[in-house]
Design goal:
By secondary structure, this protein is α/β, with parallel strands linked by helices. The protein has nine helices and eight strands. Helix 6 crosses helix 7 and helix 7 packs across helix 8. The structure holds pyridoxal-5'-phosphate.
């Protein structure tokens, strides 16, 4: 087992607890998802033995392959945090416990149709940048998307998700996300999750009310390059 991995995980958890206390929040209300994309399955096995139960992946094929290789360790939850393609809705749904990236009615419809009698937890991904080409629904369209997804039997809207823009103070961006979370909650009262905060900005996300952090490199170390 990689001792630095345990040390990095403990250090991040201490920073999470610290940021939560400073915000007057209970650290137990915050779920730390470890983003394991591009890393081998052995890293997930190591994380599991350190108590990690929430992992995040951003590519469907990688998620599907890792999940198949690992089997079904007790209590493990797989979070899909990447762009979801409509034609991959079935494998995404089959491999995910939570999909963080529902950002348009078409992908919601496809994930809904791919259900097999179960209900999938989803988050509405919000685009906090000015670039309409980035993933996510624009803040102005959150209410309409929440209404649409709320009407689908095989999906359960749990809240919102976003990535902070690179060229803005994360705290300001997360403030807008909190506004979007309020909008979604007016449509779906128990949609209380806010997925925000990565290696570079998770303390700011906690201060703003994030309930689910997606932390990669601070815990895993640098990612192997993609190809
Ligand atoms: C890779 C990724 C993360 C984690 O990024 P780090 O900076 O390594 O913590 C979080 N969210 C999304 C959507 C990602 O793709």
């Amino acid at each position: 087992m990689d001792a630095p991995l345990a040390d990095r995980l403990a250090a991040v958890d201490a920073r999470i607890a610290d940021a939560a206390r400073r915000a007057g929040r209970d650290p137990a209300d915050i779920t730390r998802i470890v983003v394991t994309k591009f890393h081998p399955v052995s890293l997930i096995t190591d994380l599991y033995s350190l108590g990690v139960r929430d992992v995040g992946e951003n590519r469907q094929q990688e998620l599907t392959a890792k999940r198949a290789e690992l089997g079904s360790p007790e209590g493990m939850r797989w979070h899909f945090i990447g762009q979801a393609q409509t034609n991959k809705a079935r494998p995404v749904r089959a491999a995910s416990d939570v999909v963080h990236s529902v950002d348009r009615p078409r992908i919601a419809d496809a994930l809904n149709a791919a259900g097999a009698g179960d209900v999938l937890d989803v988050l509405l991904q919000v685009n906090l940048t000015d670039d309409p080409g980035r993933g996510g629904v624009s803040p102005a369209d959150v209410e309409a998307l929440a209404t649409h997804v709320h009407g689908l039997d095989a999906l359960r809207v749990r809240g919102v998700m976003a990535v902070a823009p690179l060229d803005e103070e994360p705290a300001r961006a997360f403030e807008r996300l909190r506004g979007c979370a309020d909008v979604a909650r007016r449509v779906v009262p128990d949609a209380t999750w806010i997925s925000a905060g990565m290696t570079g900005d998770f303390p700011e996300a906690i201060a703003m009310g994030a309930t689910h952090l997606r932390i990669g490199s601070a815990i895993t170390g640098p990612r192997p390059s993609r190809d």
